Structure prediction request, 459 residues.
Amino acid sequence: MNRAYEISKKRIRLTQISCIIITLLFMIVFGNRYILQPYISFESKNKKDTILYEAVSTYANEGSFIDRNGTIISENNIVNTPENYSYAWLLGYYSVSYGNENKFGLRGSLKDYIYFLLDDDNNGADIHLTIDSRIQNYAYENILNNLEGSAIVLNNKTGEILAFASKSVIDYDANEATAILNSDIPNSQFRRGTYENDPPGSTFKVITSIAALEKAKEENLGEDFFYYYDNGSYIPEGDSFVITNYGNAMYGDIDLNEAMKYSVNCYFANLGIKVGKDRIIDVAERFMIGKDIEIPFLDTITSSLNAEDLSIADVAQLAFGQGKTEVTPFNLALIAEAIGNNGIMKKPYLVESIRYKNLPLYQANDSDLSKCASEDIILKLKEAMHEAAVGYGLNENYGMVYAKTGTAECADDRLHTYIMVTTDDFSFVISRNNGDASTELYGYAVSLLAYIQSLNINY
Prediction:
């Protein structure tokens, strides 16, 4: 009896041990495949997400996207009209086709929240945005109606993105991702505003101006430092490269304010040489040119600052925004924001909060990105930029407005035009990819400024 009992006892123990070993092996294999590998391997994570999406896509309701005023942009997987076009390049898409993930924009970055975190009714988490749908829709329908480009509006005090409208070579309905996924038109699948890296054109003259104002302050230079006689052409000393003004114009005796107003290339080429490349590059880096800038859950924008082995002619070109330095329109919007905020650039953000069953999963906080320049320098720059703004039609009827245009001569013989505008409260940049001259953007800037001000938003 005792022997039979002991044998049975051993068999039970062996069975228990075998079950434990099998369970552990299963946990190791399962954990490695679906927990560890997706954590350390991008390919494994994609495979896991694909399996999850195919499992839930038939019954899950995408979490809602809601603007700063409580307007529902999308719910139950459908983007409302007219938001389905104006928001398309921000919301993007997340889908699985033939076992491959397709992800872009907020839907792609937030898939874990809006698709895979479901409540009892199979609804994903809600995403609350900083966007004002009124400005977003106005910018898309009225500013970008006939343009390929972008319109970006920022809150100077917080870094909130109030609008980010994009228009590509094709219209993109947010409810029909296959249209953009199947497009074979070159560069059609990129968001304007964060995708392009082109020379800043004359918008860079604000950087050169700040470098000059800082030099004058530090070295106690008089007003004559900023005087220049313009005869319509400028040849850097020791070089044969000839710089001319737009339209071969001549301006005679001018100072910084007049040079900014008329965007005189020769003036800024000469000023850049006097200031020196090191100062210009230092200021540019403070304004985040040549550095990566993250927009949480949306994108990381990049730019390049040509700072190595510059000849005298290279420095002259850099000073008025040509050469090899390249920026995105969003970077220009941040530069405008920093000027409007008296020299402080705020970290940009688009997602204000993420909520699941009214529980906060994420909450954005405004913070500084860079101390770009001192307030007294910015105030002097604003004087010059206000002169330019008035010349663009942004006169005192709109309060104190500061602006600068730019026309970039790109390597592919394409012109990229910009207008950057800032007030004490908000800033915006309108960018056109294939324009003829920045003067074409004056009317759009006046229209957008007037519309934003008509809303009487409390910043």
About this structure: The chain has a mean pLDDT of 90.
